[in-house]
Amino acid sequence: xxxxxxxxxxxRPGAAVLAPADLEFFAVVARTPSLAAAARALDVTPSAVxxxxxxxxxxxxxxxxxxxxxx
Length: 71
Known about the structure:
mainly alpha
């Protein structure tokens, strides 16, 4: 048995706990070429995508996507 890796299913104190819906949301946003396209795929407004993404970033404590602005 390789014990070099451990799957710890109990979150560390202070660690963000993400729901499956959070992960599904992030997967859609990451796969699409823009936040507007993600909004269409999720059937919400672009501002709702931005707000939810910012909330997710606050909870995990890291910026998840690079924003490049309009092209």
